[in-house]
Amino acid sequence: MTLEINNLNVRFGTTDILRGVNLSVMKGSIVGLIGRNGAGKTTTLRAIMGLVKPTAGTLAFDGVDLMRAAAHERTALGIGYAPEDRRLIPDMTVEENLCVPAWALKAKDINARLENVYRVIPEARDFGPRRALELSGGQQKLVAMGRALMTGTRLLMLDEPFEGVAPALSKRIAEVIGQLRGAGKSILLSGA
Protein backbone atom coordinates (compact mmCIF):
# COMPACT_ATOMS: atom_id res chain seq x y z
CA MET A 1 0.00 0.00 0.00
CA THR A 2 1.26 3.50 -0.78
CA LEU A 3 -1.10 5.96 0.94
CA GLU A 4 -3.41 5.15 3.84
CA ILE A 5 -5.82 7.66 5.42
CA ASN A 6 -7.97 6.73 8.41
CA ASN A 7 -10.67 8.82 10.11
CA LEU A 8 -9.17 12.10 8.89
CA ASN A 9 -10.78 15.27 10.23
CA VAL A 10 -9.97 18.84 9.25
CA ARG A 11 -11.59 21.91 10.78
CA PHE A 12 -11.36 25.54 9.68
CA GLY A 13 -12.37 27.70 12.65
CA THR A 14 -15.57 26.15 13.97
CA THR A 15 -16.48 24.43 10.69
CA ASP A 16 -15.73 20.76 10.07
CA ILE A 17 -14.51 20.42 6.50
CA LEU A 18 -13.52 16.74 6.61
CA ARG A 19 -15.08 14.21 8.97
CA GLY A 20 -13.90 10.62 9.18
CA VAL A 21 -12.30 10.38 5.73
CA ASN A 22 -10.88 6.95 4.91
CA LEU A 23 -8.91 6.37 1.73
CA SER A 24 -6.28 3.99 0.38
CA VAL A 25 -4.16 4.42 -2.72
CA MET A 26 -2.33 1.27 -3.74
CA LYS A 27 0.95 1.34 -5.63
CA GLY A 28 0.38 1.79 -9.37
CA SER A 29 -3.32 2.65 -9.02
CA ILE A 30 -5.40 5.66 -10.00
CA VAL A 31 -7.90 6.79 -7.37
CA GLY A 32 -10.43 9.55 -7.94
CA LEU A 33 -11.98 11.85 -5.36
CA ILE A 34 -15.33 12.81 -6.84
CA GLY A 35 -17.79 15.29 -5.40
CA ARG A 36 -19.46 18.65 -5.71
CA ASN A 37 -17.69 21.91 -5.00
CA GLY A 38 -17.12 22.29 -1.27
CA ALA A 39 -17.15 18.54 -0.59
CA GLY A 40 -13.56 18.59 0.73
CA LYS A 41 -11.59 17.17 -2.20
CA THR A 42 -8.99 19.94 -2.25
CA THR A 43 -8.79 19.96 1.55
CA THR A 44 -8.03 16.22 1.49
CA LEU A 45 -5.17 16.73 -0.97
CA ARG A 46 -3.86 19.71 0.98
CA ALA A 47 -3.95 17.68 4.21
CA ILE A 48 -1.91 14.92 2.57
CA MET A 49 0.65 17.53 1.47
CA GLY A 50 0.78 19.12 4.94
CA LEU A 51 -0.69 22.42 3.77
CA VAL A 52 -3.59 22.17 6.25
CA LYS A 53 -3.42 20.58 9.68
CA PRO A 54 -5.80 17.71 10.46
CA THR A 55 -7.53 17.76 13.84
CA ALA A 56 -7.79 13.97 14.04
CA GLY A 57 -7.03 10.78 12.15
CA THR A 58 -3.97 9.22 10.58
CA LEU A 59 -2.06 9.75 7.34
CA ALA A 60 0.64 7.28 6.32
CA PHE A 61 2.72 6.96 3.16
CA ASP A 62 4.58 3.64 2.82
CA GLY A 63 4.63 3.35 6.59
CA VAL A 64 5.82 6.92 7.24
CA ASP A 65 3.54 8.87 9.61
CA LEU A 66 2.72 11.99 7.59
CA MET A 67 1.08 13.62 10.62
CA ARG A 68 4.61 14.09 11.98
CA ALA A 69 6.21 15.12 8.67
CA ALA A 70 6.59 18.71 7.45
CA ALA A 71 5.33 19.55 3.94
CA HIS A 72 8.86 19.57 2.47
CA GLU A 73 9.53 16.16 4.01
CA ARG A 74 6.45 14.79 2.25
CA THR A 75 7.77 16.07 -1.06
CA ALA A 76 11.12 14.39 -0.33
CA LEU A 77 9.23 11.08 0.06
CA GLY A 78 8.24 11.28 -3.62
CA ILE A 79 4.84 12.98 -3.36
CA GLY A 80 4.02 15.58 -6.01
CA TYR A 81 1.01 17.91 -6.01
CA ALA A 82 -0.52 19.94 -8.83
CA PRO A 83 -3.08 22.36 -7.33
CA GLU A 84 -6.27 23.27 -9.17
CA ASP A 85 -5.15 26.87 -9.69
CA ARG A 86 -1.75 25.74 -11.06
CA ARG A 87 0.28 28.21 -8.91
CA LEU A 88 2.86 28.83 -11.59
CA ILE A 89 5.15 31.84 -11.14
CA PRO A 90 4.04 34.03 -14.08
CA ASP A 91 7.31 35.84 -14.83
CA MET A 92 9.50 32.73 -14.62
CA THR A 93 10.05 30.54 -17.65
CA VAL A 94 8.28 27.22 -17.92
CA GLU A 95 11.57 25.39 -17.33
CA GLU A 96 12.25 27.45 -14.21
CA ASN A 97 8.72 26.69 -12.94
CA LEU A 98 9.34 23.00 -13.53
CA CYS A 99 12.60 23.10 -11.60
CA VAL A 100 11.42 25.06 -8.54
CA PRO A 101 10.41 22.03 -6.41
CA ALA A 102 13.62 20.14 -7.25
CA TRP A 103 15.67 23.23 -6.41
CA ALA A 104 13.83 23.48 -3.08
CA LEU A 105 14.70 19.84 -2.36
CA LYS A 106 18.31 20.49 -3.38
CA ALA A 107 17.94 17.43 -5.61
CA LYS A 108 21.19 16.22 -7.14
CA ASP A 109 19.45 14.80 -10.24
CA ILE A 110 17.52 17.84 -11.47
CA ASN A 111 18.49 17.31 -15.13
CA ALA A 112 17.37 13.68 -15.03
CA ARG A 113 14.07 14.68 -13.42
CA LEU A 114 13.58 17.38 -16.05
CA GLU A 115 14.31 14.94 -18.86
CA ASN A 116 11.72 12.56 -17.39
CA VAL A 117 9.12 15.35 -17.45
CA TYR A 118 10.05 16.12 -21.07
CA ARG A 119 9.73 12.42 -21.95
CA VAL A 120 6.24 12.23 -20.43
CA ILE A 121 5.09 15.72 -21.49
CA PRO A 122 7.15 16.63 -24.58
CA GLU A 123 5.15 19.85 -24.98
CA ALA A 124 6.84 21.15 -21.82
CA ARG A 125 10.19 21.18 -23.61
CA ASP A 126 8.66 23.31 -26.38
CA PHE A 127 7.17 25.66 -23.77
CA GLY A 128 10.47 25.74 -21.83
CA PRO A 129 11.80 29.22 -22.68
CA ARG A 130 8.39 30.92 -22.57
CA ARG A 131 7.17 32.72 -19.48
CA ALA A 132 4.37 30.87 -17.70
CA LEU A 133 1.94 33.77 -18.17
CA GLU A 134 2.22 33.36 -21.96
CA LEU A 135 0.56 29.92 -21.87
CA SER A 136 -3.13 29.06 -22.15
CA GLY A 137 -4.90 27.63 -19.10
CA GLY A 138 -4.66 24.08 -20.47
CA GLN A 139 -0.97 24.46 -21.26
CA GLN A 140 -0.44 25.75 -17.72
CA LYS A 141 -2.21 22.63 -16.38
CA LEU A 142 0.28 20.46 -18.29
CA VAL A 143 3.18 22.47 -16.86
CA ALA A 144 1.74 22.21 -13.33
CA MET A 145 1.49 18.45 -13.83
CA GLY A 146 5.11 18.41 -15.02
CA ARG A 147 6.20 20.42 -11.99
CA ALA A 148 4.45 17.90 -9.72
CA LEU A 149 6.29 15.11 -11.56
CA MET A 150 9.62 16.70 -10.59
CA THR A 151 9.01 15.48 -7.03
CA GLY A 152 6.12 13.06 -7.50
CA THR A 153 8.27 10.06 -8.22
CA ARG A 154 5.96 7.72 -6.27
CA LEU A 155 2.62 9.49 -5.76
CA LEU A 156 1.17 12.20 -7.97
CA MET A 157 -1.80 14.21 -6.72
CA LEU A 158 -3.76 16.24 -9.27
CA ASP A 159 -6.46 18.63 -8.10
CA GLU A 160 -9.15 19.12 -10.78
CA PRO A 161 -6.78 18.46 -13.70
CA PHE A 162 -9.55 18.82 -16.31
CA GLU A 163 -11.25 21.92 -14.85
CA GLY A 164 -11.54 24.74 -17.40
CA VAL A 165 -9.45 22.94 -20.03
CA ALA A 166 -10.35 22.73 -23.73
CA PRO A 167 -11.40 19.23 -24.89
CA ALA A 168 -8.21 18.63 -26.91
CA LEU A 169 -6.00 19.42 -23.91
CA SER A 170 -8.27 17.40 -21.59
CA LYS A 171 -7.65 14.41 -23.85
CA ARG A 172 -3.90 15.07 -23.72
CA ILE A 173 -3.94 15.31 -19.90
CA ALA A 174 -5.84 11.98 -19.76
CA GLU A 175 -3.18 10.41 -22.02
CA VAL A 176 -0.40 11.62 -19.71
CA ILE A 177 -2.22 10.23 -16.66
CA GLY A 178 -2.65 6.87 -18.40
CA GLN A 179 1.02 6.81 -19.36
CA LEU A 180 2.05 7.51 -15.76
CA ARG A 181 -0.15 4.72 -14.44
CA GLY A 182 1.49 2.35 -16.89
CA ALA A 183 4.84 3.34 -15.36
CA GLY A 184 3.70 2.15 -11.92
CA LYS A 185 3.15 5.58 -10.40
CA SER A 186 0.27 5.99 -7.94
CA ILE A 187 -2.14 8.78 -8.82
CA LEU A 188 -4.77 10.51 -6.73
CA LEU A 189 -6.95 12.97 -8.62
CA SER A 190 -9.99 15.03 -7.77
CA GLY A 191 -12.90 15.99 -9.97
CA ALA A 192 -16.50 17.16 -9.86
Give structural attributes.
26% strand, alpha/beta, 192 residues, Rossmann fold, four-stranded antiparallel sheet
Regarding CATH, which class?
A: Alpha Beta
Please trace the helix and strand order, writing H or E for each element. EEEHEEHEHHHHEHE
How much of the polypeptide forms β-strand, as a percent range? 25-35%
Rg result: 16 Å
- For the record, what is the CATH homologous superfamily label? P-loop containing nucleotide triphosphate hydrolases
| Largest sheet report | 4 strands, antiparallel
Detailed description of the structure:
- The protein is α/β, with parallel strands linked by helices and 192 residues long.
- It has a single domain (3-191), classed as 3-Layer(aba) Sandwich (Rossmann fold), CATH 3.40.50.300.
- The protein is 39% helix and 26% strand.
- It contains 7 helices and 8 strands; from the N terminus they run βββαββαβααααβαβ.
- The protein has helices at residues 41-49, 71-76, 94-105, 110-120, 122-127, 137-151, 167-182, and strands at 3-12, 15-25, 30-34, 56-61, 64-65, 79-82, 155-159, 186-191.
- Strands 2-1-4-5 form a 4-stranded antiparallel sheet, covered by helices on one side.
- A hairpin with a 2-residue loop joins strand 4 and strand 5 (64-65).
- Helix 4 packs across helix 6 (137-151).
- The longest helix is centred in the last third of the chain and has 16 residues, at 167-182.
- The radius of gyration is 16 Å and the shape is globular.
- The two termini are 26 Å apart.
- 37% of the residues are buried.
- Residues 3-192 form the ABC transporter domain.
- Keywords: Amino-acid transport, ATP-binding, Cell inner membrane, Cell membrane, Membrane, Nucleotide-binding, Transport.
